[in-house]
Design brief:
heterodimer; A: 303 residues; mainly alpha; two-stranded antiparallel sheet; 11 helices; 5 strands; 6% strand; globular; B: 247 residues; alpha+beta; 6-stranded mixed β-sheet; 4-stranded antiparallel β-sheet; 6 helices; flat
Chain lengths: 303, 247
């Protein structure tokens, strides 16, 4: 079924886009990642202009997060206080990211920078998660009780001013999540992603948050930051394709619900192992894209 | 008016072209359009070249609105591919198709092709930056090749049919991913390697209905449009959550 996209200026197969949304939504509900790191490259691969892809994927991530947040709220899996601190940091970060984006775009190196940041970020995070989840699974097989020592990073402990985050089981400085939110805000605008794949591991390994609230809280932050990013795109690049977004949403909101249910039935160690593998696969694909001779040596930019 | 062709010179034939659609409307199901370009060749005193004489041939060029573009070229720097070089062009057609009754290279010489922009390798792209001829050729080729593979530039030799030497018709396909704007369909009568007559018809491609409404809202009411997009995403997500939650 072909449908014309009024902003992207081309026609697409509606079913393919809905299925793409469904797949990404499934991951989003399961792992608490926004899924933008998959949607944007897949849309570009399908032939949608990169700016339109990034701008519309942001609104799709918003929709997927809403249903995810609802699902996690019911299970008591959202630390609202922690979430709010992250959101404030995220919005400040996305404003800073917008400036950086314009600067890189003018120099023509935005694609390369995106590629390198993706590879470094996803590669290191994926590797960290992979080793951790394999260790956890091994410990389980040997019938040894896994040493459950959640501790936040010493740097986090060194920050002044401490707040209690009851749901997360933490007594730490709000500056730590604020900075984390700021960093993901920059990534949201720069990479056109929600930043969940950075946020989730950082919450686990840097802040030491309890596993039960990590996914819900990261979705909460992603919800607000991607909504802000959609508004920024709508007013600056004017590249949000509402028809494309609606198609993606249709699939992804359903996928997110299914994903959230699957997540509550799966062991967290298995979830983390699966997410680590996906993240590493995307990093490897990005690395190939940088090192291999690209299909297109030339690219055209309308002025 | 009927005497016009006669007054203009008894030697030269005249073209009377038309096009199936003066306006192409883009709606939700738009997957491209096929234009039928047809017309008649009026020979002086109605004398159609007979046997033994070289018949006249027809070429039809359909061109989209001109664009200002920046072309970037990737090169391998320190092991990774980055945009290294660039070239600015001032008049790049967003769409270009040439249909002819015989391959255009067998009808006219390269000089004529360059003058009339016959063929995807003869486009006058007006590069803006002062580059060496080598560089310019390289970038021209890259740009044209990119657009050709996207289906935006093409040559269709043999796509023009001429019946009984006086009536001609050609089908030109316009793909879905073309910009809106004013297109032109130009018809040329060619004989003995010379262009004898030319006639031009405009074609307007525009969005209509919902597609037009969305495009204009995104442009003129950006903040409201963005808010609607956010509301839509939250609505979708909320509806799905509420619906699944009840089950």
């Amino acid at each position: 079924m072909d449908l014309y996209l009024p902003i992207a200026n081309l026609s697409v197969n509606a079913v393919v886009i809905v299925l793409l949304g469904l797949g990404v939504g499934l991951l989003s509900g399961m792992f608490g990642v926004g899924g933008g790191f998959l949607t944007t490259p897949l849309l570009i691969f399908y032939g949608i202009p990169p700016t339109v892809a990034a701008a519309s994927a942001a609104s799709q991530v918003t929709g997927a997060s809403v249903s995810g947040v609802f699902a996690h709220f019911r299970r008591g899996g959202v630390d609202v206080r922690m979430g709010m601190v992250l959101v404030v940091g995220g919005i400040l970060g996305s404003l800073a990211g917008a400036g950086l984006f314009a600067l890189l775009q003018a120099s023509g190196q935005i694609d390369t920078v995106i590629g390198i940041v993706y590879v470094l970020m996803l590669g290191s995070i994926g590797g960290l998660m992979l080793t951790e989840s394999i260790q956890a699974l091994r410990a389980e097989k040997g019938y040894r009780p896994k040493p459950r020592r959640r501790r936040h990073h010493p740097l986090v402990a060194a920050l002044p001013l401490r707040w209690r985050f009851y749901r997360s089981g933490l007594y730490i400085s709000p500056l730590a999540p604020l900075l984390l939110g700021f960093a993901t805000g920059i990534l949201t605008v720069l990479l056109g992603v929600g930043g969940g794949f950075v946020l989730v591991p950082a919450m686990l390994y840097l802040l030491g948050m309890s596993v039960q609230v990590v996914v819900g809280t990261s979705l909460f932050q992603i919800l607000f930051v991607t909504a802000a990013a959609t508004l920024v795109h709508a007013t600056t690049t004017k590249a949000v394709d509402i028809v494309l977004a609606a198609l993606l949403l249709l699939g992804s909101v359903m996928g997110a619900q299914i994903g959230a249910r699957l997540a509550s039935k799966t062991k967290p160690e298995h979830l983390r192992l699966a997410l680590a593998l996906i993240v590493l696969a995307v990093a490897a694909r990005m690395l190939l894209g940088l090192a291999w001779r690209p299909d297109e040596i030339y690219s055209v930019e309308l002025q | 008016m009927l005497a016009m062709p006669l007054l203009l010179g008894a030697e030269k034939p005249v073209l009377v072209p038309d096009v199936s659609q003066r306006e192409v409307e883009i709606v939700y199901s738009f997957t491209g359009a096929e234009l039928l370009l047809f017309g008649a060749i009026l020979y002086p005193e109605g004398r159609v070249p007979g046997r033994g004489e070289k018949p006249a041939e027809i070429a039809v060029v359909v061109e989209g609105p001109l664009q200002l573009v920046l072309v970037r070229e990737k090169a391998k720097v320190a092991g990774i591919w980055v945009n290294a070089d660039r070239m600015r062009y001032r008049s790049v057609p967003s769409f270009y198709a040439i249909a002819s009754s015989k391959p255009i290279r067998s009808l006219v010489d390269d000089r004529t092709r360059a003058i009339y922009e016959f063929g995807t390798d003869s486009l006058q792209l007006s590069p803006a930056s002062g580059a060496t001829p080598d560089e310019q050729v390289r970038f021209d080729r890259g740009l044209v090749d990119l657009r050709r593979r996207a289906g935006l530039y093409y040559e269709a030799p043999g796509a023009v049919e001429i019946s009984q030497g006086v009536l001609y018709r050609a089908r030109v396909r316009i793909p879905a991913r073309v910009p809106v704007g004013r297109y032109t369909a130009e018809t040329f009568l060619i004989r003995d390697g010379r262009v004898l007559a030319a006639a031009i018809r405009p074609i307007e491609i525009r969005k209509s209905g919902f597609e037009r409404f969305v495009a204009s809202a995104a442009q003129h009411h950006a903040l409201l449009y963005g808010l609607v997009a956010v509301a839509l995403s939250i609505g979708f997500g909320w509806a799905a959550g509420a619906w699944w939650g009840r089950r």
